[in-house]
Amino acid sequence: MLEIINFSKTYRGGKKAVDNLTLHVEPGVIYGFIGHNGAGKTTTIRAAVGALEFEEGDILVNGISIKKDPIAAKRVLAYIPDTPELYNNLTGIKYLRFIADVFGVTESERRERIEHYAGAFEMTKQLGDPISSYSHGMRQKLIVISALLHEPKLLVLDEPFVGLDPKAAFTLKGFMREVCDKGGAIFFSTHVLDTAEKLCDRVAIIKQGRLVAEGTMDEVRGNESLEHVFLELTD
Amino acid sequence: MNQLISIYFANQLKLSKGDTKRTRRILGGAAIAVCLMFGLISYNLTFGISLKQTTGNLEPLPVIMAGASSLLALFSAIYSAKSLIFAYKDRDMLAALPLPRAKVVLSRVLILYIYELIYTFAIMLPCLGVCAALTRPGFTFWLTAIPGCIMLPVLPLVIGCALGAVGAVLTSGSRAMGAMRYVLITVFALGLMAVSFSSSFSTGENGLLGAQPLALIGRASSAMRRYWPPLAWFSDAVWKYPIRLLLLAAVSVAGLFAFTSVAGKYDGLVADRVASVKSRGSARLGRGKARGVLRALLVKEFATYTGAPLYVFNTAFGLLLMLIASGAFLIYGDKVISVLVQTPGGAEALIPALPLALGLFAVLSCTSACSVSMEGSRLWISRMLPVSRMMIFTAKMGVNFILSASASLISSIMIAAKLGADGEFLFWLIVTPLVYSAFTSAFGLFINLRHPKLDWTNEAAVVKQSAAVLLAMLGGFLVTLLPLGLQSAFGGFIVLRLATVIIAIFTTLLLMWMKRRGAALYDRL
């Protein structure tokens, strides 16, 4: 579903954020991507969803190169960034309609899905209010709902649990599993190693832009905890 | 206090040291400043020499310019008060510092003051320079004029901030009330313009048309001194009684501290009130039909536009003036027509200039010049959408074109109806403003793509103070004032025809640039 092939990214000024990274995320898999602050996680994620230009390597989403045909690739993916910045002047429902229109979600489908996801995140009552009045967590929930509206095949999330209350985090984990059960895939970064350990089928650890470990959860952690392995590999 | 201000200004300069972009920006800014200064000096010199020859008294000139800069400061403050003082992004961070609130408010007002001071000096220095060159005053002239200029924007700024804050509080809570806020400010601005014009022209027997420009300056200056005493104090201090400077300084500083003390005391209350939103309860999920992609993008762009009063004000004022001027011409235009008919060559010279004049109003209203910058930290949303960059650009340009073309068409129809226009003139009267509307839409976006500002914390930084807005306006002036000047020199339709065709070609080239290079630039933002 997601193939990152020899991807490197050097920022202006010469800083190499990611160095020759190769990863494959198969359909039906929740893939955790972990590393220190500044290790290159967000750079990789932003490149994978077409939000960041890159010169070296290629990234394929459902077999489509994000570099060569970004529009087609974006139709099958959804992205949830680490900071929930949204259009403050729109109401929640107007934002969802905007996203549904752009992704071509039919009227009946959008009504059904908004009811379903907004209900699950307890956001139905707030959808009529301007986004400017939303808390951090509510904005995060709205982004999650908008990301699920067009039933993406690949869901890419950057620190998705930050700002969410425990119930919303639990609900999100359920929806992540649902996407995979339908044949989709999840690629997400997190600092919460407990969550990664319980939720992920596969995991990759990145250090200073280079991959230092990759495999199924059991392969990576062996007999240790993920936290122990992570600290050992990254210190 | 220094720390609070340096967070905004000095640190940015320090961090960008050695950056070639910064050098280019500084050089570009200096080039624009030189051009502006040259224009202002020519303008002041023309009126200064005429005033000296006819009345021997140059006093009215600085009063007029000081009045203009004060009005600019007043309206900037009214528009910006909410977003700059009470509802900026990092407000919570500053409010949490162990500082008196009044100091934080003062630092925010001073940020606006620094901008206004630059504008004041840009307006006043050419004027004072011309006065000094023509009258050769003593050393006290500059000794009072410079501190006077430093004081000039303070009181308008304080009053503007107070009015802006009261307006924001009274109209907070709902979108309808928010819209009412900018309706009230528009009415206030137009009312103020009407009062100043009527008080300047009221003594002329034949009204506007009979007034001589120089006598008009004298009357306008007297009216300004009467209605806004700080102008009289400034003028008196510069020309006759330097001690009046102390009065100006004392009242300005007292006003500033009174405002910051009161605003500091009620800062939390005002900020809460301004940020409060009336809950509408559950949204009706069944409402709203599916729309096409372009329509959805356009609706989003319009929502961004109408949701930011400052954005609307900064860009819709030219169109509003265009409609008011055309409406006034439709109702009261007989006098103008009779004078044009009586003046030899008047009709031939001025009537073909009307489409270009409408074009001038159109370039004054450019929403696309900050449409990319307005995305700010939300840029990720449009970059993630499965649509072409050109589609996003079309929506951004579309907002400007729809607003500008609608106002232009209505104005063209009113003017055509009054003049009984037909044939070639009718064609250009409709087509030329539309071409200028399309050009402004494309040119604004082109400039914004080249000079984006995405790291803003309040809208004023983008809508009023960004390089893109200034450059788009200057470019717009250039492409309208140049043909207008040539039109007055040559007359007939030749300049109008050529200007329209050239602008249309230039617009097409801009659209072609946007498709390839513009899209690449957008991706690199």
Please give a quick description of this structure.
Chain A is of the alpha/beta class and 235 residues long. Helix content of chain A is 38%, strand content 26%.
Characterization of the model:
The complex is a heterodimer of chains A (235) and B (525). Helix content of chain A is 38%, strand content 26%. Chain A has 235 residues and is α/β, with parallel strands linked by helices. In chain A, the strands form two sheets. Chain A has a six-stranded mixed β-sheet, with helices on both faces. A four-stranded antiparallel β-sheet of chain A has the order 2-1-4-5. In chain A, helix 6 (166-181) links the parallel strand 7 and strand 8. Chain B is mostly helical and 525 residues long. Chain B has two domains: 1-7 and 24-202 and 211-277, no CATH class; 293-525, no CATH class. Chain B contains 24 helices and no strands. Chain B has helices spanning 2-8, 10-15, 20-54, 60-86, 91-95, 101-135, 139-151, 154-170, 175-201, 207-210, 213-227, 229-239, 244-275, 293-306, 309-332, 334-342, 346-350, 354-363, 379-384, 389-419, 423-450, 459-463, 467-490, 494-524. In chain B, helix 1 (2-8) packs across helix 6 (101-135), helix 6 packs antiparallel against helix 7 (139-151) and helix 18 packs antiparallel against helix 20. The longest helix of chain B has 35 residues, at 20-54. Mean pLDDT of chain B is 81; it is low at 201-211. Chain A binds chain B through residues 49-51, 53, 71-72, 74-75, 79, 81, 83, 85-94, 97-98, 100-107, 110-111, 114-115, 118, 124-130, 132-133, and chain B through 175, 275, 277, 279-286, 288-293, 295-297, 299-300, 303-304, 306-308, 376-378, 380-381, 383-388, 523-524.
